[in-house]
Amino acid sequence: MENRSDTHNSDPNSVGPPSALTYLDPHYWDERFSSEEHYEWFKDYSHFQHLIKSNIKTSSSVLELGCGNSQLCEELYKDKIVDITCIDLCSVAVEKMLDRLLSKGYKEIKVVQADMLDLPFNSESFDVVIEKGTMDVLFVDAGDPWNPRPETVSKVMATLDGVHRVLKPDGIFISITFGQPHFRRPLFKDPKYSWSMEYNTFGDGFHYFFYILRKGKRCNDEKENEKCKDPSISLYQDELEGEDYLFRTRFDDDED
């Protein structure tokens, strides 16, 4: 899965599903990707391009989790990052992405049908793993965000285990998300992972989070906490576009 594009479905009046829980249904994505050409979650590339350029070298091998029909891989390619592998669980999304990339001449970008909970790649294969809104789907039925359901935690940890495994010793994991540091830190900072955690924010009235986890760079938690002061939890939705509000609404409901 990957903010609103100008080409959301063939119907300009189309809206998202009635509940974020719908995102857990594979048939929903099959049907959606069959007709939808492009959709961006959590702002388009221009809003965080400066963060990409300061953290990803053009020589890096990159794995994108849950490409959907996003243009993220194309934007990376335009910025001279060409060694890219995209995965998605939905076969329809994979087929359409392959067709789109080939039609634009982006033959070097690889697209594979795969589950991010069980990555089919060798250990230490990539310099960078990136996801944009994909892991947020795992949290739609998490319940209390301060104490998510064990089933949710299990899926998130399976994803993080795989990411940590396929990253090279000095690789980085970039997660672009709604997820506040209050809720992501206990997962990202599990003692079994060797990565450090830092983050930036982008957006105007509402903050989206750009996490950077650097493998092999874990340091004293106290020093790291000094670098990353958590912002207050924002409940404003003025800046949310397209279906982003569904994730935000779900979060707010759990807070009540």
TrEMBL record:
Which Pfam families has this protein been placed in?
Methyltransf_31
The UniProt record lists the Methyltransferase domain at 58-179
- Family, per the entry? Belongs to the methyltransferase superfamily.
Q: What is the primary gene name for this protein?
A: LOC104729790
Q: Which UniProt keywords apply?
A: Methyltransferase, Transferase
This one is known as Methyltransferase-like protein 13
InterPro entries assigned: Lys/N-term_MeTrsfase_sf, Methyltranfer_dom, SAM-dependent_MTases_sf
